[in-house]
Amino acid sequence: MLSSWTPDESSETLLAEKGWLQGAVVSAVAYGIDVALYFMCFHLLLRQMNRTNYKKHLPLLMYITTTFILSTLFMAALANFTQLAFIQYRNYPGGPNAFENNMFGIPVDNLGNVCGFLTMILSDGLVVWRCMVIYRGCMVPMWIIMLFPGLMFAASVAMGIMWLLQVTTNSPYFSSTNINYTVPYLSLSLALNIIITIVIVLRLLTYRHRISKVLGSSYGTQYTSIAAMIIESAALYSAFSVAFLTLFLLNNPISATFIEALTQVQIIAMLLIVFRVAQGKSWSQDTMTRVMTSKPSVQAIRMGDLGYGSQDGSKTFTGFTGIGTHETYKCSDRDSAEATV
């Protein structure tokens, strides 16, 4: 490779352009995951929908379809804008990086910004809703728990509107002000997701401790496992947000890679939550009561297991393989369960 083939740009500018282009590639990969998850969620919700539960499933179908359309439009706008910068107008003074920074406000860029903004509102609203569901039944009043997240969500929406007006209009108010609404808008939205991730994980860890203490560690794992907590709390998006914020605050050009893919990663986290809801594995208002009062499943016991007993007699199990099997499990805790087959 000849050095003369390299554009006459600084190393920082070239690194920023690399980060932007790689961000478009990562965003395309994430969009592919979005497509797969969307059709999985859509198929599962549609198959389960009937006259009794359509009021629950239909809003979710409309929600995921709306966000999928927005993510598709965002991806199309990103691909087209990248093509303009790197191919059609690659001789723009300063290169593609300068094109990106100076040519905001063109129709294709406005389309991407509007779709990204609406997607972020819908995704943030979903995690706030999940926080409400998981904290229902808490001794602390719901309005106290949701006051701070609700205010942060409202502030994020308001700041997002200001940011959208700044990048899509040529109003003298926004051109004359020195305020850059990008930083406070993204910071509020990302901080909201990080905070909600923490409080949801803390709540699920509390549930996990209570269930394990009474029934044992094998019960309620579909609701309180590590994978369940990661999905329910949208931890994937929060981790991605932390990486972006760290690089952005350090003024590292690679942060462009993360910000380009941020919308699609957020949709992945949202669709994973909806998929668990469609599967019936997500946490609901009566999950804790249902798990604590559920009887141990005899289906989990392998046929042919022999009986055993503890030395202090606190646990007994008798089993026999064959027709008319009688199996009994007893626990000496306050909450005891007995299953008979």
Automatic annotation (TrEMBL):
Name by which UniProt lists this protein: Uncharacterized protein
Transmembrane helix found in the keyword field: yes
TM region(s), chain numbering: 20-46, 58-79, 111-131, 143-165, 185-205, 226-250, 256-278
Species the sequence originates in: Suillus placidus
Keyword annotations from UniProtKB, A to Z: Membrane, Transmembrane, Transmembrane helix
